[in-house]
């Protein structure tokens, strides 16, 4: 598993990884995107517990 973490770290240091990281950070700050994510998580939580006992 340490190999995967190392590869992820190397990717995030690359130009493509930095660009992707900045894109994700901008999306996370957008109120519309945050609302969509909050709604999606709430929907998954409500559906996820219905079949378990």
UniProtKB/TrEMBL annotation:
It comes from the Bacteria. Residues 15-53 are annotated as: Disordered. Residues 27-38 have a biased composition (Basic and acidic residues). This is Antitoxin.
């Amino acid at each position: 598993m340490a190999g995967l973490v190392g590869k992820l770290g190397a990717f995030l240091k690359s130009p493509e990884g930095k660009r992707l990281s900045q894109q994700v950070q901008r999306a996370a700050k957008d109120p519309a995107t945050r609302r969509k994510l909050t709604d999606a998580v709430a929907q998954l939580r409500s559906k996820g517990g219905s079949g378990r006992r």
